[in-house]
Design brief:
By secondary structure, the chain is of the alpha/beta class. Helix content is about 35%, strand content about 15%. The chain is built from ten helices and eleven strands. The longest helix has 22 residues.
Length: about 375
């Protein structure tokens, strides 16, 4: 008598955490359950594929109540042997033995498909697995919004909401004490978070990697506001905005042996220079991982759920090596290879920047 073995798929989360990861997992489980499929959730990203594989069976019961939770119930890793993104547009090939071990795990568990949720690095590894006949499907995640082929990634809206709320709060204290306050936000080598939050939160100066700036331009804007009877200024600095000499500002610890440079500290340097040049009391606030934690916004919950459901659809249709993406109003898909190993940056002459300039916002370049 033959025993029925249900169709089985896998899901993992890789790279940095972001609001909405659990919403994707829930969407995957619900959609797969409707098809009568079993879902295995691999723990700590691709590390969970290494023998002995570390996974748990996911179902509607043990994924109940996770839609609004930040982080990922499966855990994630963005350092170590499964690190494919090491800088701006750079890629590292994963050791063949690791890829083969991951392939063997998928084969031994009879996975019909493996859903890989992550940013450029995670999806670069997914592509390398696909080239070794692992049936992968990608879901784009990053608060930085720097992934090609999708108008927006889930996690970005939540990060912008966090930064915008911070600006709302800083506005009142800056005005009360007639101070300059510099808010440092994440974004890696792009300025999407800085510009969106800066415009939405009423910033006066926005410093981003895509536009060269200098301290004279920043000071000029502060003095213009002073002359107009506005004795306080809000400055937003993206962590990857290059110093006027062209260099990146990184943490003292530098980078790990394998992984990207640890950006951070530009906000404090800008604040110190502003105070020295203007004599105005200047403070710096670094949002850091607040932007990556906490519950996802309504938009991110919906987008992440749609991505999870459509990833299951791609497996059902046997369309592997593809990434779900958002082309409003639809969720569509593209080859993973088209989306990785290049940055989606803020167009310096695009509508977003033109809108900001029309409002009188300075980018420190004039």
């Amino acid at each position: 008598m033959s025993i029925h073995v249900p169709t089985r798929i896998g899901v993992l989360t890789g790279g940095g955490d972001a609001p909405g990861l659990n919403a994707v997992i829930r969407g995957v489980v619900k959609a797969a359950t409707q098809l009568g499929w079993e879902v295995l959730g691999f723990e700590k990203g691709y590390e969970g594929l290494m023998p002995p594989a570390r996974y748990r069976v996911l179902d509607n019961e043990n994924t109940k109540g996770i839609l609004h939770l930040g982080g990922t119930i499966l855990g994630t890793v963005n350092r170590g042997r499964f690190t494919a993104k090491v800088g701006e547009g750079q890629e590292r090939q994963i050791e063949p033995a690791l890829l083969e071990a991951a392939h063997a795990t998928c084969e031994s568990l009879h996975l019909r498909g493996l859903i890989c949720i992550g940013g450029d690095g995670t999806l670069s590894i997914a592509q390398q697995l696909y080239e070794r006949d692992v049936p992968v499907v990608g879901v784009p995640k990053t608060i930085d919004n720097d992934l090609e082929c999708t108008v927006i990634t889930f996690g970005f809206d939540s990060a912008v909401a966090c930064a915008t709320e911070a600006l709302d709060r800083l506005h009142t204290t800056a005005a009360s004490h007639e101070r300059v306050i510099v808010l440092e936000v994440m974004g890696r080598h792009t300025g999407w978070i800085a510009v969106h939050a800066g415009v939405a939160g009423g910033a006066d100066v926005i410093l981003i990697p895509e536009i060269a700036w200098d301290l004279d331009g920043v000071v000029r804007k502060i003095r213009q506001r002073e002359a107009a009877g506005r004795p306080f200024t809000l400055v937003v600095a993206a962590e990857g905005a290059r110093w006027p000499d062209g260099g990146l500002v990184a943490r003292a610890t530098g980078a790990s042996a394998i992984g990207e440079i640890q950006l951070g500290g530009i906000g404090q340097r800008v604040a110190e220079e502003i105070q020295a040049r203007t004599g105005k009391e200047t403070r710096c606030v670094v949002l850091g991982h607040l932007q990556r934690g906490g519950p996802p916004t309504t938009f991110d919950r919906l987008l992440a759920t749609r991505f999870g459901v459509n990833a299951v659809r791609l497996i059902a249709e046997g369309r592997f090596g593809r990434m779900v993406c958002h082309h409003p109003p639809d969720a569509v898909d593209v080859p993973i290879a088209q989306a990785i190993n290049r940055l989606r940056t803020v167009p310096p002459d695009g509508d977003l920047i033109r809108t900001a300039r029309a409002l009188g916002i300075s980018f420190g370049d004039g």
